[in-house]
Design a protein that fits this description.
The protein is 45% helix and 11% strand. It is mainly alpha-helical and 170 residues long. It has two domains: 2-126, no CATH class; 138-170, no CATH class. A three-stranded antiparallel β-sheet has the order 2-1-3, sandwiched between helices. The termini are far apart.
């Protein structure tokens, strides 16, 4: 089982909560193999521009500075492998920090076998107040029917029982 960090985007003007949920990002904690193997390309593919600029400067300094001081080519390869190892270990943390700086919010940490299982577990455990409101015009889906709890204007919390609109005995 792996752990995934869940990040939710800031709400944009005119954006529904469902659209915001669709943009939710699940980052797997652990070693990023592609960051280790394809360091610079991985940074570019994840749009980590500042990290790529630092990587490029360090790589150029190693390539030209290493030759100038007479560093053995095996030493250069080892130094570049260490940079790749660092990014393999810390690549997902760089992504997380970038999103947090942009205003995204940490929604939690979820454990699961794969991203599909993690998404299902995360959205099933959201409080009812955060779930989208289902209306009568909503199409029937696999989760529709009497077994599914819905929110109504008078019902703002979790519903227990068969009568979600009941506000108590009268």
């Amino acid at each position: 089982m792996a752990f995934y960090t869940v990040l939710m985007p800031p709400a944009a003007a005119g954006e529904t909560q469902t659209e915001q949920f669709e943009k939710t990002v699940f980052l797997k904690d652990g070693f990023a193999v592609f960051a280790f193997l394809f360091t610079g390309l991985w940074l570019l593919s994840k749009r980590l521009w500042l990290a790529f600029a630092v990587f490029l400067l360090v790589w150029l300094a190693l390539a030209f500075g290493g030759r100038a001081v007479g560093l053995h080519p095996l030493g250069l390869a080892l130094a570049q492998a260490l940079i790749g190892l660092f990014l393999g270990l810390e690549g997902h943390a760089l992504q997380e920090r970038k999103l947090l700086r942009k205003g995204w919010q940490l929604a939690g940490v979820v454990e699961g076998k794969d991203v599909g299982a993690v998404e299902r577990r995360f959205f099933e455990t959201l409080p009812m107040a955060a779930m989208p409101v289902l209306t009568a015009s909503a199409p029937a889906g696999p989760l529709s029917g009497p077994a599914m709890a819905t929110r109504t204007p008078g019902n703002q919390g979790t519903v227990l029982g068969l009568f979600p609109d009941a506000q108590g005995r009268t």
